[in-house]
Please model this.
Amino acid sequence: MSPFAHLVGSWLVASVTTTNPRDRTLVTLAGVLPDADGLGVIADVLSSWFTGKECTFYYYQQYHHVLLHGWPGAMAVSVLLTFFGKQRGPVLFLCLLTFHLHLLCDMVGSRGPDIGDVWPICYSEPLLRHPIWLWKHQWKLDGWQNQSIFIFLFISSLGLTVKRGYSFVEIISQRLDCIFVQLLRKWCRIRNFERC
Ligand SMILES: [Zn+2]
Model:
């Protein structure tokens, strides 16, 4: 799944399981941060840009799905985020939950364009190579399955936003979140949706 789909899905989980904005943000971040190990792509592009050589995506391929897509990453990210939580016991559990939901979603739906481009989950990386989990029916990253799930998650999140008065935008900015919620509720009133 795309990082944005992970964000929306994790935010939904966090919204129905936490009781305050800070814990909600932390639990959501735990479901997104695994993909931070793909940020090597920035170094790849910049180094290609500065050297004028063809971009080989070396750092991206070397570290994405390796550094933060196993139990060591889950522990590190969850413990770190829990440190900032209000209800630390539930936050630790929920961070581990959204982190592993991310891994599960990647395992079922992160295949590349070719049939052989299956992404495995190396659950003990970067400490150990094994175990390696792989689902041979893994669907494409941009496949209809991922798109359908994303549309469902996105519409669900908008429904929850209208009802509760906060959205996944709060992860970026509380101020932007207020504007987004106001606009969404206004749009709902114009459309005469029942919930508004
Ligand atoms: Zn991922």
